[in-house]
Structure formats: C-alpha cells, structure tokens
Design brief:
Blueprint (H helix, E strand, L loop, with lengths): L1 E6 L16 E12 L3 E12 L8 E12 L7 H6 L1 E15 L10 E9 L2 E10 L8 E14 L4 E17 L15 E21 L2 E18 L6 E3 L2 E3 L7 E4 L2 E4 L3 H12 L3 E2 L4 E2 L13 E3 L14 E3 L7 E11 L2 E11 L2 E3 L8 E2 L7 H6 L15 E2 L13 E3 L2 E12 L2 H4 L6 E15 L18 E9 L1
Length: 480
Amino acid sequence: IALTQIDAATGDATASGSLSDWAMRSYFGRLNFSWDEKYLFEFNFRRDGSSRFIGNNRWGNFPSFSAAWRITEEPFMRSLHSQWIDNFKLRISYGSLGNNAVGNYAAIPVLSTTQYVFNNVPIVGFYQSAIANSNLTWESTKVTNVGVDWAFLKNKLSGSLDLYNKLTDNILISLPAPAVHGISSIPTQNAAKVRNRGLELSLSWRDKTNEFNYFIETNFTFNKNKVVKFKGNEYSLSGTRMIKEGLAINTDYVLKVDRIVQTQTDLDLVQQIIDNAPLDPSTNKKMNPFPFGTPQLGDFLYKDMNGDGLVNSDDRVNIGNGPNPQLMYSFSFGVNYKDFDASVSMDGIGKIKQYFYNTYYTTQLRQSRIINREVADGRWYEGRTTQASFPRTMLEGDSRNLQNSDFWLQDVSYLKIRNIQIGYSFPQKVISHMDLTKLRIYGGLENYFTFTNFKGMDPEVPGMSYPSMKQAVVGVNLSF
C-alpha cells in the first residue's frame, strides 16, 4: 500500500504549500494483491487539486480498480488445462481521470484597464472584462471494461476480447448568453457529456517447425461515438460539421444531391418544382424554390428533404458518423528461417467519411487555377454523349453547385502497408573473429502502399495536407 503526494508541475513528491503558490497537486494511492494464483485485485485512488478552480470544486477524486479471475487455475479446469487450454482469464476494470483544461482565471472575476474622460481629464479605470464561473470543476473521463484473455494449444493461439464504455462527463464548453453582458467574455461551463462504446478483439498465432518460425497477429476495434449532453435542441455548426445531442461528434450536416441535370426529363422535373412552389403568405405569390440558383443543364438538383416545396438550407440532413472511424484494424505477420527473417505490418480504418472540397478538387474556375483531371474529364459540357460524373465548370462567383452537399463527402477508409522488411543475420562463426555478437543487414519499405478510394493525397491527413512520408531503408544492425 502506497500513498504519495505529487507536485504535477515539477514531479517532486513534497509537502504541500499554500494554495497561492501551486498550479496543481496530486495525491496517489495504490493497493494490489492476489491469492491462490486465481484471483487478482488492484485499487488506485487519485486526488487532484488545481488552483484553476475555487472552493469545494478545487479537488477532484478519481478512483480506479481492476479484478481478474484465472479460471484455468480452478480444480474443475485442471483436465482441460493439461490438455489444450493454457490460460483463460476473466477481468473487469473501472477507471477515472480528470482534466482541468481551462484558463487560469476562468473561475474568478477578471478586471482590465481602460480610459475614460472625467472633468475633461483622461482617467485610467477598470472594468470587468470576463465574467467568472465559480462553479467550474473537473472534467472527468470514466471507463468501464469487461474482458477475457485466452491461450490454447501450448500458447500457439492466444487472444483477448474487451467490451468498453467510456463516458466523458462535465466537459467544458461555451454556452450562449444574453447580450446584456455586453463585451465581457463568457466563461466555459461543465455542461456536456460524450460517450464511446465498443469492443476490441486481438488474435495471435505463433508456431515453429524445425528452423522455420512464424507468427500472425491481428486486432479489430469497433467504436460508437455519441454526444449524450450538449445544448438540448440547439447545436454547434462549423462548416459541415455539427455537434448535437444524440449524434456522433462532428457529424456532417449537408444537402443531398438528387442528380446532375443532364436531360430534358431532368429539366421537366425542375420546371415541375417551380410550378408547384408554395405561396408566400405575405404576398400570395409563388416563392422561388431554388434560392441557390435555378438548376440548368449541368447543375446539381438538390433534394427537398422536408417536403415543403423549397430547396434551401432547411433541407440539410446529418450523414455519416463524423471524422472518427467506427472500425480500426491491423495485421502483422513474420517468418524466420535459419538466418533469414521477413515481416509485414499493416493497418486500416473503415466506416468513415470526410468532406473533401478545395481549390484542387473543384468545378469552379478562375484565372491561373488548375483543377483535378478527374474533375475536368468528368464534368458536364454541351454535347456530351455520356453521363457526367461532375457538374459543369463555372466561373468563380456562382455557387449553386458548391453548396455543402453529400456529393463532396468521400469515403476515406484505407488499408496501409506500414512496413515491409527483409533481413539476414550472419552466422556466429562468420562474425566471431570480428569481435561482434550480431551482424544483421536489412532492407525495408515504409508507407509505400495504400489502398483507398479517397481522391486526395493521403486518406490519413485532412484535405490536401502534406502526406505521410514514404521511405526505402537499407540498414545494418551491429552488436559488440
């Protein structure tokens, strides 16, 4: 059993000082024990204090524990244990941690200097530039996990399965405030909650035959993200990304494209929407159903999702699950034969979309702009005999085809071969006279192969950011 006080700023275990001379201090205790080699238990308790909070909110308590039961050590499992089950363990754990990522003075009133005139003389005064939130406290993350570990066939086949629930509570966000507060900045509040649930599966197979050794390992993770608490029915929107209760974080909020207008039938449909447009109650005249611009040949026809007869911003819908993948996986395998070795590792993600529209991938033209060849070849143009895959190109200023829509959402799932390496280790009898204990030469490729439908530079980086570096490596390992 241990109890330690830690100064988070220096890492030193010292006695506490006054509240005015520290930013954060922590107390940490740990208790762990096991018995009969069957039952294991560990308990941790962490108490953090931050001078960014005041009063009773200054300290946060963050306990965690884990317990495990090695079933293969039970008497009723002995026959199976001796035959083919090497290990079978059930475990459960719970843990919590805190976050104090707010400004140093968010919990107390802040004054700033200003000048005003009194009796025709300039005077320096003070005003409250930031409204305080004395109720600010720790943001906390709580994770519950239930898992099982196993090993079969003399530990050749091993693996684990975990089910987890991660809840981040009291997230610090900015909420709307009435204009009566004037120019004073509004403090953040502990008012949001996000949940991640999922499972993780790991499998491994290792075996050898004479001088041939090999292994295969894989990992799959499925995660579901959800905003549990935010602003009620209100939401936050940045570009195409929305944060709203009940949705995944930063879910895309866009129009849906029905089609590219290319035939007389498409033009007739546009005219039908115009003819059936609702009346403006203030003028008793038909409203313009296309505020973004009436579609012509080569233009997008957006869907009227709410059925009000108008195609406008009210027809935006949520699509996808935000920028965080729901599926993550990895594979690796390797072989050793005598003095030769080879290995391959790869990983990927799935069930993820990204809004991909920029000056490189656009149908909007202006002087000296170069557009993507796929866009140029796939655009609609007068006299085209095949179906266009992109709308017509237009001069800058006309944005009817550039509204945030699902047309520009791309699947950024990928599989990347991270590393391929082949090596040869010289026999000991060859290098012993050189006073070496090991001499290995190797060659490898890093990030050389990517399999994806993404149209940008690299599905792993946003937009047209600099892609991951590809490297061809030749090296030597020496041990003396």
